[in-house]
Amino acid sequence: MKAVLILGLMIFGITAVELESGVPILLKEIKAIKTEHTEFTFLLDLELSQGGKVSEVVSLVGDLLEQMKRDQLNDDLEYAHRTTTLGLDIEWLIIVLRNLTKERQDKNNQLSELNQILVGLQQQLDALTEQLNILNGKEEQLRQTRAQEAASYQARQENNSKVLAALNEIIPKLQVAVFDQEGKSLLQTEQFEIVEKIKRELGHNHPIAIMVALTTKFDVPTVKRIIDKLDHIRNAVIALMQQEDEQETQSQITFQTVLQEIAELRERFSKDFEITSQLIKKRTNDKVLLEKRLTIINRDLSLTEQLLIQTREYKEQYDAAYAVRKGKRISEIKTVQQAYDLVENHAKKHKQ
User: Fold this and answer.
1) Are 194 and 233 in contact (CB under 8 A)?
2) What is the CA radius of gyration of the chain?
3) How many CB atoms lie within 10 A of CB 287?
4) Which of 93, 206, 219, 226 could form a disulfide with 185 if both were Cys (CB 3.0 to 4.6 A apart)?
């Protein structure tokens, strides 16, 4: 009602007291207007009672009425624009909130799946590590066993070689002794030398050494039998050495074959281990990025929820303020309209 107050100040400056015809009745009608805006009717009454011309009052009130209607229209347009914008903002925030909520759910599902994948990959890595350790242990044990077998083979062959060498030395001597003493018994000294040689080369507890030592009659036929047995033993030793060589060769082949299999398995497991390790590294990086994104989403969700609440509250406050402002202005317009209708009708009647 600022314009009304300005109008009142203008009217207050009028000093004429002569009233136009019918104004007293008009003043009664104006005072009869039921309104809360008594300052306006008071000023209007003051203007007319001071001798103001009705035609001028009609013009002033008419201008005031039009200005108030324009103000209300502008306010309505501003409110429509602002409330539409706020409504769109709220709808957009709801969409953003819905999208963020869905994305968070999707990311949480992805994180859960990723954790399961990482658990599975870690189990694979642990199994591969165990397999590699088993292979390494198996290879170590295999090498130790092979080394022991090779040492045992070497010891046996050395012993067999010594036995064979001894037999190769003893048998010719016995054959020479038999040839020289054909039909005779060997001297006790010769028997002793042969026994000592056998014991020295074959060992004191060797069956041949014991047999020769216990032989009471050391004649040519007996020595020949001993030579036959020694020759048989020599052939057995030669065969045994050949068998030992063959077994050693086969053991070496088997050893190399198993080593090759272990090496192939180790290479395959090592490749799988490397691939699995890289997958774990990649999935771990994916998890870090996913967790960072979830942190951002949760932050954005919180901010969006706060902004949505604030925007809704602001719109409610804006709507309430507009409703109050509009209600007041409509009431003012109604009052001014009633006054305008009275003075305009009065002016028309007295103009005729």
Assistant:
1) no
2) 64
3) 16
4) 219
